[in-house]
Structures are given as structure tokens and as C-alpha cells.
Amino acid sequence: MAEKLIELESIDAALALFGTFDENVRILEKEFEIAAVSRGTELKLSGTPQRVDQAARAVEAMLRLIRNGTPIEEQTLRYCISLASSGDETRVEELTGDFIALTTKGRPVRPKTLGQKAYIDAIRKNSITFGIGPAGTGKTYLAVAMAVRSFKAHEVSRIILTRPAVEAGEKLGFLPGDLQNKVDPYLRPLYDGLFELLGAETFQKLMEKGIIEVAPLAYMRGRTLDDSFIILDEAQNTTPEQMKMFLTRMGMGSKVVVTGDVTQIDLPDKTRSGLLDATRILQDIEGIAMVRFSDKDVVRHRLVQEIVRAYEKVQDNRTKPAAKK
């Protein structure tokens, strides 16, 4: 049995670390199978030497974030735990200095995981960036935040967001209303990010001026998009021909981000995904970055991460070769 006493810098640091009613302390106990007792500005950890050491390193990662003004939410805590478990807790410093934008409510938008940090860095450095990974990793939201940042910094003059109108086999013609009413449900996730970052009124004004354009992928054909920040969302539902068409729309002074989840392809059977093709064909071209997220980068509810892991486990079992008899 090992014990470690951690003395915190102040009561404010203790409150931020321990959480409401010591909820963070309870999570540490459960995840590392240790005993944790908080008293004033002290935290005492007891358990096996390896577990106590890992828990202490997770606490140190949390304290690094607290010193830089990052609130410790449950997702943040669990990410610090995963970093400590893999021996990467010191890398949490990489997340503290990167600010992207402010929401209309004044909340700072910044990467919450190392995968998100790599994604943001890739978007800054490359003309075309592919963000590939499971649901809840912030692929679309961070791309929209970077687009808004680039527009406000006068790096681009337009923001163009698009996605293929393919959802679980349904077709636009089945939906009521005019064309705008038909395509809006497919583009709603893109609207949501823009509303949060710009506000509904500013967004509407920019839409009316043509500075922001949100449209189905088919509307991109035959165009050359100069001086624009262009986002293709749900790219796993493009065909190879659509993907080629989209990527060749890129004009001078533009930046392109392509996002998708190759485990959620809704194309008809035997139709190849343009995203899968592109990652294979374009991976060695300078100026094109491929960033792959894992379940560790999921920043939604904890259960989303568990759901992603469960499905990945099933998929891994299906793809394993059958044992020889």
C-alpha cells in the first residue's frame, strides 16, 4: 500500500480540482481504484503504488490546466486520466495556450484534446485538411470556428459550407416545402456552429450578402472558389467523383477542410466512399494533411465515448480472421 499527499497552492485551486461536492475526487477514486481524501488544500491518495502514481500524475495534469484558467469539467478530467494512464500527462500543456474564437456567450473555443490540437495546427499550416474520426470529436465545430476566425482576421472573404444530401437512404424529394426547406435539415449541424460563433442576426446578414454560403454539395459543380474558407462535412457520403469535383473547386487564396466518419457511410451498397478513396490517393501530397481522431478525442457526453468504443470493438472482432481449426 502506498500513500501520497498533494498540497495545493490555494483554496481556489482546491475547489477547482475537487469539483462540486468532491465529484472529481470520487471519479479519481473509481477510475484508479484508490482511496482519495480531500481536506482543505490537501488531497491524500492511497492504494497500490502504480495506481497512486498514475492518479497523482492525473492530478498534476489537472493542476496545469487550472493554472492556465481552464475549468475542470468531467470530460476534461477523464482526458487527464487517460493521459496519465498512458504517461502523456505533461503534454496537457500543449492545450493551454491555443485560443481560436469566442462564442456569442463569451465562452472561449480552444482544443480540448491532443487530437484536436493536431487538427487545428494542420488547418493553420495546410491548404487542405482532412479530419477523420468518430462522432463527438469536434471535427465540424472546430472547422467552423477556424473559418469564422479566418474571416474575422480578413484572411478570407467568404465562408462556404457544404455536405452531401445523403442521409440513411432518404432523398430530398421526400421532404416537404421548397428547395431551401428540403436542404435545411441536412445542413442544420453547420448552421448550429455558425449561430453559436456569430449570433443568429450576424449570421443572417452575412448569408443575405452572400459572404456565408451553406449549400448541398451538388451546388459546387462548375464553380471556382477563390479567397474562401470551404468546409465539406459528412464527406464519407460522397462518391469518388463527387470528392474529386469538390476538391478541384478550390481557387487562389482558399483553404479547405474535409470532415467525415468512415464508420457512418450511408451510401448505397457497393458505392465506394469518396473520403476513403481520397485518404488513400492524396496522403502523400504536400499541403494536404490527414488528421485521424480516436475515441480519446470524443468531447461530448462520457457515454458517447463508451458507445464509440463498443462499436469499434464489435467491428474489430468482425474483421479479425477466423481461427483455423
What does this structure look like?
The chain has 2 domains: 2-95, Ribosomal Protein S8, Chain: A, domain 1; 101-318, P-loop containing nucleotide triphosphate hydrolases (Rossmann fold, 3-Layer(aba) Sandwich), CATH 3.40.50. Helix content is 42%, strand content 16%. It has helices at residues 11-18, 23-32, 49-67, 74-85, 114-125, 139-152, 179-198, 200-208, 240-247, 274-281, 302-319; strands at 2-7, 35-39, 42-47, 101-102, 108-109, 128-132, 158-163, 212-216, 228-232, 255-260, 288-292. Strands 8-7-9-10-6-11 form a 6-stranded parallel β-sheet. Strands 1-3-2 form a 3-stranded antiparallel β-sheet, with helices on one face. Helix 3 packs across helix 4 and helix 6 (139-152) crosses helix 7.
